[in-house]
Amino acid sequence: SMMASNFVYAALPEDSIRLLEFSTNVAGELICNMTASPLDEPLDFYALSYTWGSGSATAESILCNGLSMKIASNLNEAIRTLFSPPFNLEYSIWVDAICINQEDHDEKRDQVSRMGDVYRKARQVVVWLGPSDQDSDIGMDWIERLSLTLPSIPQPPMLLTLPELGLPHQESRLWPALGYLYRRKWFGRLWTFQEAVLASDVKMVCGRKSVGWDTLATLARELNRLR
């Protein structure tokens, strides 16, 4: 496509947030429509929680309000995944890296101080754990079932009896897969737990699979209890 000029932020009206709608054009480029709305209006939006990852060296170009903008490749991947099947997010989304002008220190300070309100007001917080990797699909597929099965097991089972309890045997790829899943970077950011707890409804997404935050937290507690 023709070279678009670089995106420039307009000043953000007081007590407002920017929200984004995403689509793709014929060329498959990510198109973003950015609008500002007062936070006290009734708004229907998602809030994204993810780990920023390193540097902008791997930045991707998107078109925001018709102008060229660079975003980190892990964010690009998150957005492309969430706005395609099976997710097809149908409302706009709030993403800190894009919705806050990172170069404007006053705005940044002001917006970071109201992030709690943003997460609380969101229809749903969507946590992007990253792309499918290290058997994460197997782990994600089992989470719901394990969170229902494990609470009824009274004490740590002998590994040999796992199949008798309806669980995969100790050599199964499931157990390492869960270990890798819970070791993903997002879980290492303690303040993300506050985001998650503030929000009434949290969806955890890994690759093309998703599970509720409560289910994931229950399973973590049970795996810990049963060692």
Number of helices: 9
pLDDT < 50 runs, ≥5 residues? none
How widely separated are the two ends? Answer: 55 Å
Q: Strands of the largest sheet, in order across it?
A: 6-3-7-8-9
Q: Could you estimate the helical fraction of the residues in percent?
A: 25-40%
Rg, nearest Å? 20 Å
- The fraction of residues assigned to DSSP E strands is 15-25%
> Would you tell me the structural class of the helices and strands?
alpha/beta
Q: Kindly report the average pLDDT value.
A: 91
Number of strands: 9
N-to-C SSE string, H for helix and E for strand: EEEEEHEHHHEHHHHEEH
Global geometry: elongated
Largest sheet: 5 strands, mixed
Element layout with pairings:
Elements: E1 16-24, E2 30-38, E3 45-49, E4 60-64, E5 67-71, H1 73-82, E6 92-94, H2 96-99, H3 105-113, H4 115-121, E7 124-130, H5 136-149, H6 174-182, H7 185-188, H8 190-198, E8 202-206, E9 209-212, H9 213-225
Parallel strand pairs: 2-4, 3-6, 3-7, 7-8
Antiparallel strand pairs: 1-2, 4-5, 8-9
Helix pairs in contact: 5-6, 5-9
What this model shows, in words?
The structure is a single chain. The protein is of the alpha/beta class. The chain has nine helices and nine strands. The protein has helices at 73-82, 96-99, 105-113, 115-121, 136-149, 174-182, 185-188, 190-198, 213-225, and strands at residues 16-24, 30-38, 45-49, 60-64, 67-71, 92-94, 124-130, 202-206, 209-212.
